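Structure tokens please, single chain.
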Amino acid sequence: MPNQSDLTDALRRELTSSRGA
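Here you go.
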């Protein structure tokens, strides 16, 4: 299983990409 931090980082990237920040 991937690291929790890795998953969180991916989610953050998706959120920031959606925000455009």
